[in-house]
Design brief:
308 residues; alpha+beta; Immunoglobulin-like; 6-stranded antiparallel beta sheet; 3-stranded mixed beta sheet; 7 helices; 9 strands
Length: 308
Amino acid sequence: MKARKALAAAALVAAAAAGCTTAQGDTAPAPSTSAAPSTPAKPELSREAYQELLDAAEAALMPAAGALSWAGTSAAYKEAAGKLHKALGEQRDALAGQTPPAAVATAHTALLRGLRAAQRAAKTVRLPGPQRNACGAVDALPRQTARRFPDRLLDESRLVRRVEAIQAGGYMFGAFVTVLAAPRAAEAEMPSGAAVVPLGAKGAGTLEFTNKLRHDAVAYLVSSGDTAKPLAAVYVRKDETATVPGIGGSYEIYVKAGSDWDSGASAFTRDCYFARFNEAMGADKVTTATILATDTPQENGPVEIPPF
C-alpha cells in the first residue's frame, strides 16, 4: 500500500512538472515569463540638434499665439484658440519623441507637462457669440475680455516658469509665451481729422467740430436721419478740433464717443456716449460745432441718444 501511494505521488509531481492536462488530454503550456520587447530610447540629442527642435516648435506656435493677440472679434478669437490648441498638441508630441541633452532633461519633462496643460486650457476658451454690446459695436472684443483666456492658460500651465528653465540651460525658446503674456495690442491711435467715412458728395460747406468730452469722438454728418449712410464721418480726439471741408447739402451731426476705437466694427468698445445735435446744419456755409463734457450745461447742445 505504501509503495502504491509513493508511486501516485511521484506521478503527480511529474505531471505538474510537465504541465497540466486538459479534459481532452491536451497539455496546457506553462505561462511565459519573458517580458514584451520595449522600444529602445532614441539617442540623446546634441545641444545643436535640441536647439533646432526648439526652433521648429517655436516657429509652429508663434502664428497661433500672434493671431490670438490680434483677434478683434469673438469668432476670430475662437478660431485662433483652436489653432493654438492644435499647435500645442503637435509640438508637445514632437518634443516628447526625442531625448534631450541630459543637462535639461528635467526642464524638458516639465515643459512637456506645461504644453499639455496649455493645450487643455486652449480647448476650453469660452467667449460670447456675435452680439451688439453696450457701445453699439457688433461682436467687438474688448481687450479686458480677450486678456482673461491667455492669463488662465499661462497660469494653469505654468509655461512662463517652465520656459525660463529651458532658457537657463542656454537655449533660445519661449517667444510665443512672451506674445501670450503681453497685453493685447491696442489699435493705433487715430489722429483728429482722420476720415472714418470718406466724404461723398462735394459742395461748398465746411464743418469745424471741437470735442470737449472726456474721451475721443467721431462726428457723423447725417442726411435725412440715416446714420447707416452718413455723408461723412471724422475722428476728433479729446480737446481737439477737426475740419471737414467740401460738404454738399444740409445735414445733422451725430456723435459717438468713448475709448478703444475698433475700426473694423466702426465703434468704440468702452465708456460709450451717443448724441445728436438737434439743429440741422445749412448747406454751403461754414458751421462751427462744439460738444462739451456730458456734465457741463450746453445751450442748444446735443442730446443723448441710443447707440447707433
